[in-house]
Every structure is written in C-alpha cells, then in structure tokens.
Amino acid sequence: MTFTEFATTVYPFLEIANFHATYYRLLEAFARGEIRRLIVTMPPQHGKSVGAATLLPAYMLGLEPDMRIAIASYSGSLASKFNRRVQRILDSEEYATLFPETTIKRGTKPANYVRTADEVEIIGHDGVLLSVGREGSLTGNRVDCFILDDLYKDAMEANSPIIRENCWEWYTSVVRTRMHNASRELIVFTRWHEEDLIGTITSKEPCRKFQSFNDLDNLSENEWLYLNFEALKASPPTEIDPRQLGEALWEERHSALLLQQKRQLDTLRFECMYQGHPSSREGLLYGDSFTEYDALPRDIVRYANYTDTADTGDDYLCSICYAVDTDGVIYIVDVVYSREPMEVTEREVAEMLCRNRTRIAFVESNNGGRGFARAVQRYAPTTKVEWFHQGANKEARILSHSATVQHLLRFPRGWRQRWFELYSHLTTYRRTFRSNRWHDAADVLTGIVERETGKQEFKAKIAFRS
C-alpha cells in the first residue's frame, strides 16, 4: 500500500492537491528507507505536519513495528499533541485492517506496556513512539527515526541568536547522540531565518536540491535531500514542481491573489515563511530604506532609461526609466521587470519609452543586448537608443555603489505594489554576493548611478550605434 492510499484510508476527509501527491510520494520513499536524511520546507497551513508528524509515524510503525520513532517540536505539548494524533490512528478500525500486527495498549491492557501522551509501545514488538520538546531529554533511548517538525515557535524565537544556538546545541547533543548508523532524520518546518537549524545543517553537510525522482538513485547515505515548496512559483519548473512562474502552490486554499497581498505586507518575512528563502535583515545590502516621492520636481533636466537584458532563461530583463533633477537626484519613473522572451519585452520596453517620452536609452550589449537595442529602436523611433559593453566586475560595482544608490535614488510612493518583484528582489538583496539568486535589479540601479554621477569605469568601452 502506498503512503497516499494509507493516508486517504485513515483520513478519508484529506484533501490531496498536486503538491501533496509529490510530498507523500517523497515521504513514502523516506518511510521505506530509500532516503536517510530529508528536509522539506513549505509555507504555513499547507499540510506539512499532517503528512510528516501525524500520518507518517503511523505508516512507518505499520511497515516496521519494531521501529523506534521520536517526534520533536518547539514545545513538549505540541510534540505530545502529534503523539496523541498518531495514537488515535493506531486505535482506528481502518488502521487495524491495514496493519493488524501493529497494536497499542487499550485501557489498562496489556498492563506491562506503556501508553502516555509522550510515549507509546507497540505490543509484541520493540517499536515505540516518543515525543519531546526542543531542549527536552531522551536519555537512554535509541532512536531509529527522528521527525523534527517546527522547532521554532515564531519569528521572535527564530530571530533570537540565543534560541538558535540553544536549538543547535540540543540537536547535536541530544538528537545526533541518540542515533545509530541506520537511523533516519526528517526535518519539516517553515523557514524563519537563514541561520535556523536547516540553514546551519546545509552549511555544514552535503545537501542536494530535489528536482527529479532520479535524484534518489544515487543519493549517498550522508547526503541530505532538500525539497522546498514555494508558495508562489519563482524558480524554473522541474519534474518535482512543474508549476509555471507565479502559480500558487495550493490555489484552492491560498490563492495567488491572497499570497500577493501577504507579500506586500512584509516582503522579507514572505520570502522566509512562504518562499523558503530566508534572509536576515542585518545582512541586507539595501533593505527597505529607499526614499519615496509623491511627485516629480519641476526642475527635471533629463529623462533617460537604462536596460539590462537577461543573461539566462532564469534571469530578469530589467529596464528602468528615470528622471534627473538639477541636484543630480534620480527619480525612478517606470519599470519593465520581466522574464518573458525578448520578442515580448522588446515591445514592452519600447512602449514604456514612448509612454514616458524618454529622450535616450542605454542598453547593455552583453548577451544579445545589441539585437534587443536595434529592435527597441524600431518600435520607439523618437528615443535615441544606444548600446554599450559592460565589462566591469558586477559584484564590485554593486557593492561599491550601494550607498550612493540609496542616497541618490527615489522611488514613487506605492512602488511596492506596482512592481512587487522588483521591490522584493531589491529589499531582500544580500551583502554576500553569492547568496543572491538574482542580480538584475541591483545591477541596473548601479548602472544608472554610475552613468549619472560620471563615475562609470566603462566610459571608454561604450560602442554607440551608428
């Protein structure tokens, strides 16, 4: 019997969305020992605990009644709650039909077996289900499988260096010391901080992103398999998550519109909790510190545009129209920030240039930029389109000009809602260059500042269109 069949038998009310089917298939591989070390992250209220901390232990005890399983969470009471839920499944008639060999104490019989909210033994076998809160003790107990579900209660706990350190200390001194060569580990929770338990483990031990079920074929025993379900699809489609960009993970329960609204409230928190891409506010390059304006000043001396075409299929084309006043302050006026193909963005950029009566547009000629510039010029004949080669180091440019970018640039009030992806990528952009997935927005802001302050090192390399 598959894990999905088991789940819908003992929980006939269970809703199985497409991503649940993938999630349950992965949990089944874990239950059957095909995976020893597994990390799964997903947004709140998407059914991670029902699958991992309630249904999975019951399924594993049915397959292997001698298995010793421990469920851990941020508090002993929550871990006990999971334990009681599993016990109710083990007590059910449906479960007895599926796994008649796995039974637990009922009432006072058999008298020599343990059944409490924190521990229950399998009659006639060595199997046991334990529950423990973070920093709780498991002295003397051998554990064949650990299930760690939500080891942080909330953002306040996860953002506390003391609690994160205590959690790591408990993990290394309790969890790891109770395990043996064949023990398995499953970690499931919503991300809160880049240095939470998952962040620390993946920085110290080998970890593979799960993109195809073929990844199970050559997975080493010491390697972690890591699956992250984004609430709104932002990464390229894979066999495991074939959604298109922008699609919600569970549209029927948490629609893309609802998720966008949550994203606008706190972009950094949304990237952590709902997208699984945590960043600490202390490590951000810009943060949410850009100045906003209500209306353009009267003394505008120049309207221009700066465009960087996408380097790869996963990158964004970033094209920004801006205005400069007599003091050299730069006002962002309009934006095209898109991963659509060039035949789409060529027209979008041209329409933006015409709409804003832009006099001159600068296009980086790298990665097909020259052909893009020619096409835009055809669609926007009133704008002078010039291309140039950007040869300077991107990392050095972005980092060295970050303070000037924040000092000189102004965004229109409400830009968070108007260009939410641009806002998200800029306000979560990190100082550690390699930690960032997308550099396109930061690169264009840097290019604008370089050009308008006269500090661009690439002046001599500009090749104007004849």
How would you describe what is shown here?
- The structure is a single chain.
- This protein has 466 residues and is α/β, with parallel strands linked by helices.
- Helix content is 36%, strand content 18%.
- The protein contains 17 helices and 15 strands.
- An 8-stranded mixed sheet has the order 3-4-2-5-6-1-8-7, with helices on one face. The chain has a 7-stranded mixed sheet with strand order 9-15-12-11-10-13-14, with helices on both faces.
- A hairpin with a 4-residue loop joins strand 11 (317-325) and strand 12.
- Helix 11 (342-355) packs across helix 12.
Topology summary:
Blueprint lengths: L2 H8 L7 H14 L5 E5 L6 H16 L4 E6 L2 H16 L1 H6 L20 E3 L6 E6 L11 E5 L5 H4 L2 H15 L8 E5 L8 H8 L2 E3 L14 E5 L27 H10 L1 H7 L17 E3 L6 E9 L8 E9 L4 E9 L3 H14 L4 E5 L4 H11 L4 E5 L5 H7 L1 H7 E4 L2 H4 L1 H8 L12 H14 L13
Parallel strand pairs: 1-6, 1-8, 2-4, 2-5, 5-6, 7-8, 9-15, 10-13, 12-15, 13-14
Antiparallel strand pairs: 3-4, 10-11, 11-12
